Structure formats: C-alpha cells, structure tokens
Amino acid sequence: RPPLMDWDLFSRILEVLPPSVETITFGSVGEPLLNPLTPKMIHAIHASGRRACLYTNGVLLKGEKAEAIAAAPLSVLNISIEPDARTAREYRGINFDEIMENIREFRKIRNPMTRIQLSVVLHRDSHDKISQLKDSCEGIVDGIKCSPMMKFDVTHIRDICSEVWRGNLNIFTNGDVSPCCFDLYGDLRIGNIREMSLEDMLRGQAFTNLMRQFIDGNLPQRCLHCQEVPISPVWKRVPRRCVGHSAQTLESHQEKEVSPT
User: I need a labelling partner for 212 at 20 to 30 A (CA). Which of 24, 40, 237, 253 fits?
Assistant: First the structure.
C-alpha cells in the first residue's frame, strides 16, 4: 500500500459515501500528520456535512502542522499517549514532556469546535497511572479515553465478534476496505473503493460470506488469535436479515451458546 492517501482516492471516498456515514476518522494505521493533505481533507469532510476526527501520537503537532490543524474544522483530536515519561519512552519511544508541551501550545490556537482528547491504552504499566495523568492534564485536555491493549496470542475454537456488525469501515491508502479496525494488513478485505461503492460492498458476496463465517463459528484465520472475538452475548444481537441465514439456524446457534453445560 502507498504510505499516504492521495487526493483522488479521498475525493472518490467522499463521492461514494452514503448519507448514513456521519464521521470520518484519520487513524488506525500510520500517522495522519505526515500527510500534507490532511488539513485540506478535514475541510472537505466538514463541507460535506460530516464530522472529522483524527488520531496522532502528537510528535508532529507543532509549528505549521499544528497551525493548519488548528485552523481546520476538526471535531475531535485524539492524542495517543502513555500516562508518564517512562511508559511513553518504553512503549512508544517518544518524549512525554514534549508531547504535553505540543498539546498545551495547540490548545492556545485550536478551533473552538475541536475537542482535545487523550487516548490511552491500558496495560500492566499504565492502568494504575490514569488518575495521575488526569490530574496532570487538568485544564489542558477535554477528556481521556482508555482502551484495553489488544492481544493476539489467544485461540478460539468457536465464537463471534461484534466488529463486523457495528458499522465501522476502514479504508486503506490503496482503497481497500475492511470492516475491522484491527485488520492492519487487510486480510478481511471486502472490496476496493476505487472499483465499487460502499453500499455495493456491504451487499456483496465478500462481506456476506464473512458474516456467515462468524455466524457459523468458522472464524477467518486473521481472527483466530484476536482477543476481541469472544463476546458471548453477541449471538443475541446478530441482525438475522443481514446474512440470509434462516431464523431456525440462528436460533440453533443461540441455543448452543446460552445452554448450560
């Protein structure tokens, strides 16, 4: 995949998005502030009547880049960060104090509509430092979002994941589309936005087959070692009409899932 998304692909995305898409987020893979087109893209998203959100590690949030983002109609700026200097250095290889200084300076010039939020991954060295981070960021950020660290060393025999049902779609820099934000390599690709619309993809065979795999408990290889998969109550939330499975088949799956052993 190319390292950065070009303007032609981005324009194509805006052109084919259905009205139901309310938010476009820059993130998932890579650093959005490396792309000089990001501020222009944010303006285009806002002009289309949608919210723009952005994830960054904060290293480049300074100088002209910070000024360009501050001048853009960005809804949420998420800074992915560790709670203190040691964890920032060991887990991300960045200088915590420099990032915090970047945030302080950005706050002075930000667009009034932009919410500044820290995004923290919880792990054994960070979970007990969140209160400390909250106190140190008082008056600097508008909120702190905590997420569990992903693990890919578990094995599932039969289970299901809510990710393919919740409505988020990842579009990579080459136009490939995946329904999972943890699918870093595009293994769950359901199509390419240059070749077809999102609506056609969601009605297409690739996405239908993927959902059937989850319902049947026949997980794709990419999902076998992801901790997001085992969400037992999701059986009851599966939208039956989406996959062409009979109600009887799904009831059978549900019964197997909730019956006492």
Answer: 24
Cα–Cα distance, 199 to 109 (Å, whole number):
39
**Structural domain boundaries enclosing 135:** 7-149
Bridging pattern class, strands 51-56 and 23-26: parallel
Q: pLDDT by residue (tens digit) across 73-106?
A: 999 999 999 999 999 999 999 999 999 999 999 9
What DSSP line would sit under 156-200, residue for residue?
A: -SS---SGGGS---EE-TTSEEES-TT-TT-TT--EETTTS-HHH
Identify whether residues 195 and 112 lie together within a single domain.
no
Task: Report which listed range, 132-141, 180-189, 224-233, is most confident.
Answer: 132-141
- Identify the bridge partners of residue 25 per DSSP, sorted by sequence position: 53
What is the token pair recorded at 207?
A: 């996405």
Q: What are 188's two structure tokens?
A: 């769950």
* 233 vs 96: CA distance, rounded Å: 39
- Measured distance CA(93)–CA(207) in Å, rounded: 38
Examine the domain organization and report whether 213 and 89 are in the same domain: no
Q: Which residues contact 172 (CB under 8 A, 6 or more apart)?
A: 1, 29, 178, 186
Sign (positive or negative) of CA dihedral 180, 89, 33, 146: positive
The two structure tokens encoding residue 85: 């200097």
- Average the pLDDT over 65-69 and give the result: 98
Residue 61 lies in a domain: yes
- State residue 220's pLDDT score: 84
| Beta-carbon count within 10 A of 63 CB | 10
DSSP secondary-structure letter at 94? S
